[in-house]
Amino acid sequence: MKHLGTQSDQHRFPGRVVELVDTLALGASAFGCEGSSPSSPTKDVGQKIMGTQRKKPRGVAASVIVFAKKPKSFLMIQRKWEPDRGKWAFPGGYLEVDRETIEQAAVREVKEETGVQITQADLVLLDVLSDPGRDPRGHVIDIAFLVIFDEMRKPADSDETKTKWLTLEEASNLSFALGHDRLFKQARAYLNLS
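Below the sequence we write its predicted structure tokens.
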């Protein structure tokens, strides 16, 4: 996985992205999620991060912005279920706690939701969405990655989503789900797309 790592990014995120990704490497149990036990050393880490009196996040998720250079297009999914039914988002989903890394979750979710195969080496860390009010289901920490292809790859719909490559112009006019409008703006800036 590559990190954006520019000076401006380091100032915008003051080390929090690196800290969060390092913490996620310990597993979601570091956040006090399922799998923790009182004798678990990761529970102590989770208490230091979250505080002993605070609520635990609902989950950790990965979102992947898949971009094709020719033609300039984004791989998008249209949600079939609530929340935000009918709105568009980038492929992604929840980390399987104690079973995979966040990068593995990103690869798995893109394949499950779109039929498009990516690799961990393709992933560039783009952003972290952590606003507690972003997802109506609860506080979800979403680690966002960018993948860049030279050309579009054939997608497939799933039971959960409708999948489609959308041009920059089409994507610019969408109603985004779950705060993904922020990810779209971040990707456009990173890719120097006006």
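The two ends are 26 Å apart (CA to CA).
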